[in-house]
Give the backbone structure.
Amino acid sequence: MRDPGAPVDREGDLCTSCGSTWRIRAIALGALLGLGLPRLPLPRQSPDWSRRALGVSDSVVLSAALGSRVDYTNSYYHRFPRLDLLDVPPDVHGTMDLVTCSDVLEHVPPPADRALTGVAALLRPGGAAVLSVPCDEHGSTREFYPGLTYWEAVPEGVSWIDAGGARHVDETPEYHGGPGQTLAFRLWGVEDLKERLAAVGLVDLQPLPDHPEVGVPFLAGAGVWTVRRGEEPARPVDPAPSVTSPAPDVSPAGPPPLGPLRRRWGRRPGRSPGRAG
């Protein structure tokens, strides 16, 4: 249980029993809503092994809780079991009742629609996804590296090349915590996210309601959402040139790697994508 007198902090506000943060508990609450379960802590839910769920690099705390109540698998970028949201294997298409995807979509190299398509591909019709995504609730999506075709970390920051072949250097790149590729590529706008989700068959984007009884008090601008897979087939995303980046440090074993990994929150608003160089 969280300390009711503690300030609400997305990446803090620790539970005194399990050590979960506000964000972990929010994703768990979203999972309850997505699966149509009562708003009770996961340990108090009855197991239902007929429900299938997939985590995209979930925390150990969340994966243990979900795995004790439903048929749940956590996936990773840097180790087995590995899954690439940009290339979901056909044998898992349409097999999941729930996908949890926490602080991932801001780290997908453009175009990010490919990862949205991957989430939609995993879900059966009517299945739900819980997304935590840093968003500007009143503005448009801001791509920090527009037209990106290549990037690499350099001593000065991030060197990147746009579609016209011009090289730029971002001297103040935003890296979030966690192993793997942690460079932030964008700050999503809510309406744009909603439209692009709908374009790939993910509908009814809803902000997560607060529920203090399960340790999720109100937090302004929290950026946690639920969305459902529609009944209609998704519209394929137009193919786009791939972005070249440094190779990830992954084990050679297992299925293809998942592109972005779970990230920490944060981005300084209003910064430019870097100087031309």
